[in-house]
Every structure is written in structure tokens, then in C-alpha cells.
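Re: Re: C-alpha cell formats

Sure, here are both.
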Amino acid sequence: MKIKTEGISEVVLEVESMERAVQFWSNQLGFPIVEQWGYDNGQFAEESNEVWATWLYVGGPTRLGLWLPRMFSKADQKMKQRSVSSWQNLYDEGGVHVHLALHVQKQHFEGALTVLKQERIEMKVMKEANETRVYFKDTESNIIEFYIKSMAKDYAKKVAEN
């Protein structure tokens, strides 16, 4: 690898209802809330009447952000299309997330399935030769996957082979 990283630092999912998303991710799945932000006049705000962004710790080096949609002015939308180096503000929202996969160690996978069953979350379990994973949707229709395959182990071997 040209750049040595330690994995994903953060993933952000856009949500329609912060209350509903926090209920699902924190209360049902049990990921702890580590930070919450407001949003005021186009800027993030630590002090606010409304929670606009919630950060949850999901293990390892990774946090998950749940963000309400940002409404950009026409001027901001135009600026957002320009090169990042010319931005006057931070326009860190864009693109569509396809899905989010979280690594669950094999010995903890059945426990994760038990939580999903207890919380009555519809899921699809896929078992293949040495891989097991489960897919489900969060309250905002994002596709979520729990995967036992360790990319650190599997890909390190594949990178070494090349």
C-alpha cells in the first residue's frame, strides 16, 4: 500500500429522523453515543436546541455518524462543485452510501444475531464456505452488514501475494 492506514475512521449515514436513528443504533443495537452536534447558520455547533449529528463508537478505530440532511444554498451548491482546495467552507456531505459493513469476530457473531432477533430486526443471513454475514436495514433504509471476515487478515495476505 502506498499509504498505511489502520482502517476506517468514520462513516456517515444520512438519516431522516435523528430520534428514530438513535433509537435503532444506540438503544436497539447498543452502540454508545460519544458526541452530538447541532447545526446553526450553515455551521456545526456544539451548543444547539436540535441534535443534527450523532456520533457512535462502533469498535476499533471507527465511529459512525448519523447526520440529518444539510440544505445548501444555491451559492454553496455551486461552491461545492468546485475543487476542494477552493472551498471557503466545509462541504463534507455528498454522494450516496451503498452500504455499511461492520466486522464482527466469529465468536461474537451468534450474539449479534441474537440481538437482531430480540429487537425483531428483519435480516438475511448468508453462509458460504468460510464466510458468514448478515444483512439488515436500519430505520433510514440504509443496508447494514455484519461480516466475520477480517479484512486486515485476508487482505494483508492478498497484498503480500502481489
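Second one below.
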Amino acid sequence: MTAAADPGMNVPGSPPTEAPATFDPLRLCIFATVALLGWVLGPFALLWFAGLGFLGYWRARRGGLLRSKCLLRDTRLVLLYLGLLFVAAGVGIGYLVKGWLG
């Protein structure tokens, strides 16, 4: 059998052939984990993730990022969105604590 007959074999001096990359659904696992945390921890998880995202985008914007891969594109809109989520989480936590106290 020759190298020309088998595309999986490398010819000396030629770049190695690579198998086609398979889809890794890591993002789906991450989304499921975030959803689980949101379900279990409720507004506390929202407060954490919104705050973490806000700080990340704040630093990125200060570093010069004006356009994001986020659906909202403009980092100012992303910051506004995450800030609103943070405030909503705070209100939700307030209602939870009020309910716990009576």
C-alpha cells in the first residue's frame, strides 16, 4: 500500500493530515450547569453571575473593547443589561429575605 492510496498516511516532508474536528458540546454543558445553579440558588446565582459579567465587561471596555460577541454587540448595552440583572437579583433577594423573616 502506498501513501497516495491511504489519505491517513503522511508522506515524508508533507504536513501531517488531521482528522476533521468533531463538535464538542462543552457550551451546552456549561449552559446546563448555569441553569442548575440558577434553579438551586435563585437570585443569589443571578447576583453572582451578573456581577461577575459586569466586572468582566467593565474591565474589557476600559481596555478598549467596544464591540462584543454578545447578542447586544455594544458593550455599553451589555453593561446596562448586566446592571439591570444585578439590580433585579437584589430586589429578588430582598423579597426572599422579607419572606423568611415573616
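Residues 91 and 97 are 10 Å apart (CA to CA). The helical segments are 26-41, 43-62, 75-101.
- S.
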